[in-house]
Amino acid sequence: MAARYLLYFTAEDHHLYTSSGGRLELEAKFSGDDLGVTAFREYLRGRRGALFAVLADLAGEDFHEEQVPFLRGGDREAVVQRRLAQRYRDTRLAAALSLGQVTTPQRRNERLLLASFTNTQQFAPWLDALEESGARLAGVYSVPLLAPALAARLGARGPRALVVSANRAGLRQCFVEGGRLRFARLERTVEMVPQALALFVRSETLRLVQYLGTLRALPRDGAPLQAFVVAPPGQRAEFEHALVSDARVQFHTVDAAQAQHTVKLRQAPEGTGAEALYLSLAARKPPREQFASSAERRRYFVWQLQRGIVAAGALGFVVCALVGGARWLEVMDVGNRAAAQQREAKLAAEQYQRITSTFPVTETTTENLRVAVLEFRRIAERSLAPEAAFVHVSRVLEQFPQMEVDAINWRLGRAGEQREEAPAAAPGPQGEQAVQFAISGRVNATQRNDYRGITGQVQSFANALASSGYQLARTQLPFDVTSEGTLTGDIGGVDSGEAPRFTITLSRRLQ
Amino acid sequence: MTPTREEMRKLALPALAALALVGAGAALVWSAGQALARAHGQLGAAQAERKQNAERLARIAEEEREVSEKLDVYKQLKRLNIIGEERRLEWADAITRIRTQRELLDLSYRVDRQKLLKSVPGKPGSVDFFASTMSVQLALLHEEDLLRFLADLRDSGNAYYSVKSCTIARTGQAATGTTITPRLRATCEIDLITVIDRGAKR
What we know:
The structure holds two protein chains of two kinds. By secondary structure, chain A is of the alpha+beta class. Chain A has 13 helices and 17 strands.
């Protein structure tokens, strides 16, 4: 974290501190006169762009409560600026602290605590020096503006609390109500022994309580006001002895070291009073309310914008890196799973190779061996030798000696071709292989005009052939006995001697 | 607040840095997404390979039985020269030898150009079945001559003989007594099938 310069601004002299990592270090000390301003200008040379904050701890700080109509945005800003201008002659260092809303019978109002310094001119040369040096002014704070944060750190839980601390500028008393600043005062102190300081704290606290009572800032007959007193180092015992609680005030003495711990201040320069607590808060967690105008803080605003843009980019990168990282983790997981699968696949392949190496040696691959034999068998099943058909015809012919065969036509073809030739037959599905053979012959020892005899013998012969898996596809007689044909006869005529011819067609489907 | 030109210039570098950071982050996410897609692809491929290998391993007993059974047939086809290039000279020699041995009276034949019957995809190469159609005309004394011729042809090997058609008819010539006259004439069409195994080891 970049070091911040904190100018502790008092009525007499000003101390410049740096704050980094919870450590507060005194950088320089400047007198409140022109010599001090000159020295400050000299100090600022070469520190262009450095971050500065001013913490004023002055007696002349005015607090005034006002009510304005409840507004937002530009309207509110305009009303607030008008009220500040009405209240203060110089509004260069003026602030309006919201104290919350209040509802009146007429309208809803916002309570404001207007705050400024009675003499803002004392700041002018110092702020001008910062402006001219190119330093970035984070804000002009006063100790009271930081009091609510310190009260919360010290453990103030009730509705009202008083924070009392012995600063370098004097005894600072801040009245906080509902977590918001209501009033503060600074009482000059001189060097005094711890017991005297403690008694002084008690008397000043009781005076302030009485004053707040007259302002009706404290409820009548209410609970005692909680007062948190930061005792200087090593003086807690004396403070606790002197600060006796009563019906009006309940004192809580906090040791300086303990208070530093609560504001996470690890180291403070020697001789620094309780202002170190406020300086630490101004460095670590400055309040939104401060006195400098936006024009005076412009460089700081641009600096904040620069950091904000880079931070947004870094945030985007971190989000992307997280998403990407998650995906890379998934990639690694998937990669491991893939590697495991590959190992298993390799093991299975090796095992397969080991086993197949014991197989008989082949001249081809297993796949080609398989397809070659399977297809060859398919072709062989679709092939058929004609011998079986010839043997079948020969056996049947032995039973029919009057039949004389002239020709046998054996053919292996498709069932569709068979259908064209023999529509009467029961064909198989289109494309099915079938054996078909046609037997042409003559009928001997029968008169040509004995139609019934010839028909009977041919049909008996055909029926005998239609066995052993063969089906009769067609029988063609020597004459036409159908109604569509012409039948002729020459009874008593001379026989020509030529035997009547027939054709029988058979078929057999291949399995 | 309206930024001045100087302020805009001051904001430009951080804006560029932020853009670079976001761009780098987006590139990181994109590259991780790509790597993830690749990893998923590799996982899918590895799973498929493992499954295939495991299934093949599970089928190995069946495969062994199949190999030993089919190997006998394959060897026989190889021994008969059915697997291999066509041997037309051997066919011609075989027909001449059969005619001489069986004392066939007349035998003429014609072998047509080879045709691809079927190509079966294998691994690493296909198995191609070729057929050459042979037309044979024989003069026979007896139909038994045809059956013997066909049987001898089959036994001669060098191809698988698939008979497509056969016709036997009487010649009608009367026996003279001085010369041997064929009584029958047969015409057959036979496919001479050979196999080329493109995946066979040389």
